[in-house]
Amino acid sequence: MKIIEVDHYDQMSQEAAKIISEAVCSNPRTVLGLATGGTPLGTYKYLARDHQLNQTSYTQVHTVNLDEYVGKAADHQQSYAYYMNTHLFKPVGIPHTQTHLPDGLAVNLKDEADRYNQTIQTLGGVDLQVLGIGKNGHIGFNEPGTSFDSETHLVHLTASTRKANATYFSTESDVPTQAITMGIATIMRASQILLLVSGIDKAEILYQCLFGEVDEQIPATILQTHPHVTVIADQEALTIVKEKSEA
Ligand SMILES: N[C@@H]1[C@@H](O)[C@H](O)[C@@H](COP(=O)(O)O)O[C@@H]1O
User: How large a percentage of the chain has pLDDT more than 70?
Assistant: First the structure.
């Protein structure tokens, strides 16, 4: 794993946007794998700014998102589709037909998970996957204990994940209980992974992710076995990594 150490969130976001826009410039048909949550928001802001300033073209880019809540329509403000349209797809001009997320309103959610997995394969797989990390080590919505062999699937969200994501809802009970997520095997097939980690809340899990035993109880530890991972982490997130390396 390559670790890029930065001072703070804003610098992490700028560095990440630079890597993504360079990938798109060198291959205009890049398939981007994208994440939601608070962590990549700054990155999307810088991508939108870069698009305006430098006319970086996204007209041929395809995107696949990691996950979507069950029960939220794409035009619902708390769906991940709405988040992506607002923060990235519209600002940089990715044609709607080239942006893909699971359908959280599908009648048969297991079939929808299979369909979405197939969509990713039909696109030829993900060239560059952006990842955040949950405090319990989840990637996408793959909660602790998820098989490393998992493909896109339906998940029941843990209480801790629903609590962590409650900031985006009026009350914790509004947070959906299920989601469709790319599986860990699906994520690991990406040619390149860009893991973004910011803040003191992520310091313990970042240490585990980088140096802990590879274990299904901490899904992100599987990233140690991927051949092309770049981690961009800020000083707060690196606190424990640094404490242990100095001890
Ligand atoms: N499904 C998302 C993940 O893709 C994200 O990485 C994680 C961390 O979110 P945040 O960046 O807000 O800390 O939360 C959610 O559960």
Answer: 100
